[in-house]
């Protein structure tokens, strides 16, 4: 949690619009930008600015709340192919917003949860919101990517693993792999596979490592 950050308060008048505007004002605006309006669009709020529009919506995948804090995603309100990663935030009434792409804020959320979030759920947030240009997803089974590459090519990567959790007397750990869609130098579609290991000592906060395993195409 970053000291000195403004607290995100709820307004009694259109609280969802107020919350969305505050998120954009405090975390997404560039120098010279300003918020010009906000409107409800289904479960989301569209926040208009002098540069472009932002979409603020509740996280739809578990976990959606942690320790009485609601989780939200922020993305540009444009169509992109491939899409850019969303930013994730945890919001609690009267509390500073936590930016889930900032390691210190992500571990602050773990501390605040005080055992209410599982390591597997923490890993989901870690993958979804860590900074980068590509949208990554956990591979639960190589069949998940069969429309992109042959599953056997994923299984054949040295270091590949499906999600596996383990525990010792002193720590818990989860290892898993992710994939992201990218393009190679010849502009062919490839998937980039990485291995992650997330570990937390009992009574501590998680630490993690990630390393690339390779890039695959349907010609691999």
Characterization of the model:
With 220 residues, the protein is α+β, with helices and mostly antiparallel strands. It has 2 domains: 1-118, no CATH class; 134-220, no CATH class. Helix content is 18%, strand content 38%. It contains 4 helices and 14 strands. The strands form 3 sheets. Strands 2, 3, 4, 5, 6, 7 and 9 form a 7-stranded antiparallel β-sheet that branches. Strands 10, 11, 12, 13 and 14 form a 5-stranded antiparallel β-sheet that branches. The longest helix has 13 residues, at 15-27. The termini are far apart. The model is unreliable at 1-12 (pLDDT under 50).
Q: Which helices and strands occur, and which strands form pairs?
A:
Layout: E1 7-8, H1 15-27, E2 35-41, E3 44-49, E4 53-58, E5 65-66, E6 69-76, E7 87-91, E8 95-96, E9 98-99, H2 103-113, H3 119-129, E10 136-138, H4 151-155, E11 164-167, E12 171-183, E13 189-201, E14 207-216
Antiparallel strand pairs: 1-8, 2-3, 3-4, 4-6, 5-6, 6-7, 7-9, 10-12, 11-12, 12-13, 13-14
Summarize the structure.
Helix content is 18%, strand content 38%.
């Amino acid at each position: 949690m970053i000291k000195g950050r403004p607290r995100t308060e709820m307004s009694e008048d259109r609280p969802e619009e107020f919350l969305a505007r505050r998120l954009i004002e405090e975390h997404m605006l560039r120098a010279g930008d300003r918020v010009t309006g906000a409107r409800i669009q289904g479960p989301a709020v569209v926040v208009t600015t002098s540069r472009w529009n932002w979409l603020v919506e509740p996280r739809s995948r578990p976990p959606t709340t942690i320790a009485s804090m609601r989780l939200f995603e922020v993305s540009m309100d444009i169509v992109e192919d491939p899409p850019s990663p969303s930013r994730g935030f945890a919001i609690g009434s009267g509390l500073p917003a936590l930016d889930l792409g900032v390691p210190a804020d992500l571990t602050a959320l773990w501390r605040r949860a005080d055992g209410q979030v599982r390591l597997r759920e923490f890993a989901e947030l870690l993958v979804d919101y860590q900074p980068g240009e590509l949208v990554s997803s956990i591979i639960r089974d190589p069949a998940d990517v069969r429309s992109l590459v042959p599953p056997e090519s994923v299984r054949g990567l040295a270091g590949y693993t499906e999600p596996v959790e383990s525990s010792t007397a002193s720590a818990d750990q989860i290892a898993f792999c992710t994939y992201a869609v990218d393009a190679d130098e010849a502009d062919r579609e490839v998937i980039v596979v990485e291995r992650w290991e997330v570990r937390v000592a009992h009574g501590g906060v998680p630490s993690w490592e990630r390393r690339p395993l390779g890039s695959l195409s349907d010609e691999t």
